[in-house]
From TrEMBL:
Protein name according to UniProt: Response regulator
Stretches assigned to the Response regulatory domain: 3-118
Pfam families xrefs: Response_reg (PF00072)
Coiled-coil regions listed: none
Family matches, as InterPro entries: CheY-like_superfamily (IPR011006), Sig_transdc_resp-reg_receiver (IPR001789), ST_Response_Regulator (IPR052048)
């Protein structure tokens, strides 16, 4: 079973992502509410996929993605953000994201991105 990490500073967004991921038969192993926590927990749990927000207090999702990719070049990260500007999407991809999902989250889009990332 694929283990997934969800990173978002709002519990509501984490709950929505958890529900979608678990409806695919996948397991959410760990959650984090900040970039710093995401980096620490990635090192401990080595999830197969990370769903990460950008805008969080402290370390943002782009910086956290960079640090995770430095630890594991094979890391699979999907950025989920309400900040949908061309430069933001480019920064996310440059930081190592394999996909970018705009909020508000649409179930079908999240499902497609997760399936695609996990192969």
């Amino acid at each position: 079973m694929s283990n997934i990490m969800i990173v978002d500073d709002t519990a509501f967004a984490r709950a929505i992502l958890r529900e979608i991921v678990e409806s695919l038969g996948l397991e959410v192993t760990v959650e984090a509410d900040s970039g710093e926590e995401a980096v620490k927990k990635y090192g401990l749990y080595k999830p197969k996929l990370v769903l990460m927000d950008i805008s969080m207090p402290g370390m943002n999702g782009i910086s956290a993605s960079r640090k995770i990719v430095e630890m594991d070049m094979e890391a699979k990260i999907i950025i989920c953000s309400a900040v949908v500007r061309r430069d933001t999407v480019i920064k996310a991809v440059q930081a190592g994201a394999c996909d970018f999902i705009a909020k508000p989250l649409q179930k079908e889009r999240v499902e497609w991105a997760v399936r695609n990332a996990l192969g």
